[in-house]
Amino acid sequence: MGRGRGAQDPRPVKTVSDGERQAFAKAASAAQVATVTYSYSLSPDFTQIRVIADVALWKPVGKQGGLTPLYRQRIAAIAELSKRSYDHAENVALWSAGAGALARASITAAVGRLERLIPFALGLTQADLNALDYPKSDKQFAAGF
Q: What pLDDT, in 10s, does the model give residues 65-96?
């Protein structure tokens, strides 16, 4: 994000490395750089698909494009099977039926939830963060959980 200019165009990449982040920061010539790294996995019993967004803000330092971390947050959106089984194979069969239609729809919905949660998380003030600080407050849940 540039000073006073708002967010610049994102640059999607399939794999993330420190070199890629540094090259992006150097090319962006911004006071801060944000990265969002998505991943997804199944729960051990195959009843949930978990989509994770690792959000980080970085401050570029030096002409080489070095980065100093300013903020990191992990945000998760979880889709659960409505009809679960104790048999792992049955749960896998439910996710993969119809060429994985349920799994694809669940991942798409989870990414949509993350698209709403990430700006919320980045918009928190210091007072908001202090109110959420454990052990001072109860656990906080979002996205229906």
A: 678 888 888 999 999 999 999 999 999 999 99
Break the chain into its structural domains and give their ranges.
Answer: 18-132
- Record the tokens describing residue 92, joined without a space: 């896998």
pLDDT tens by residue, 7-61: 667 777 777 787 777 777 777 777 888 888 899 999 999 999 999 999 988 888 8
Decide: 36 and 55 in contact? Cβ < 8 Å.
Answer: yes
DSSP string, 114-126: HHHHHHHHHT--H
Q: Which residues, 6 or more positions from 41, have their beta carbon under 8 angstroms from its beta carbon? A: 49, 50, 52
Q: Which residues of 110-142 are buried (b: 16+ CB within 10 A; e: fewer)?
A: beebbeebbeebeeeeeeeeeeeeeeeeeeeee
CB 112 within 8 A of CB 91: no
